[in-house]
Amino acid sequence: MPELQDPDIFRTILESLQTGVYVVGRDGRILFWNEGAEKITGYLRHEALGRLCRENVLAHCNDHNCVHCGVSCPMTGTLHEGKSSECEVYFRHKKGHRILVYLRSVAIRDSHGSVIGAAESFDEQRLVSEMDNSQTNLAAHNLLDIGSGALTRELVQSHLRENLAFFLQFQLPFGILYIRVEQMDEFRAAHGREAGEAILHVIVQNMKHTLGAAGFMGRWGENYFLIIVPNCEARDLIRAAENVKRIVNSSGIQWWGDTLSVTVSLSQAMVQPGDSMESIMKRAERMLEPKSQNEKADQQNSNLKSRGISAG
Prior knowledge:
single chain; alpha+beta; Beta-Lactamase; Alpha-Beta Plaits; 2 domains; seven-stranded antiparallel sheet; four-stranded antiparallel sheet; 41% helix
């Protein structure tokens, strides 16, 4: 059919694909950005076109942190060497959390065979669909913290009691990570409570991606989170702590044109014979000394709640 030979038809098809597709010139400037790329990354076409791909539009992340385009970027390798590549990488979504995608890069050549640009297509890897369904069910029963997306304190306490019972009966070891988000009072004062909830949500999403199905995470206090890592040895808990801190400390959000980020401090504790929920939490709390009077009050209130006592 003659109308199918019209190049505009093919462009329209590419633009409407739900697979993400973008094209860059030899200098790495984005020349094409389709609907799929908008949907997966959160960046609209007008926010991406004309930008260099290294300008934070497509920050690539590995297991440790998020970096801009460089030697390790698949697109850079395709532009320099002209070789096609396929890999799984994390992109940083416009909202700040990481998304796992399967990425394919190909070189674009002129009639002489010289590389004049590159194209990438990518699809989000929905490896956590079962987890998503579980989260939906938990939310329906009011067992998810609305602001952050973490488990509620009550539910993570239940998981902690369950792991203690398994340890008592089967000697199955586990550990906990106690996490404090630093300077959140100052962050909220400077940027507003909505920005504070947005950065906490990003932190939780990134911790979930880092942990996968290997742990339970809940909001323990205003600026505190608790992670339970079941069936682990001390070295496994240390590794989990390092990964969580590294990923969270490289997280950020775009807020009214600014890039906002926070840091976390964390402590860890392995279960010991004779432990109760109070004793293992006390060890983790002692290792994470509060820095300010407000944080001391927040932690004291958290301690009282864990014992079922009103702060009055």
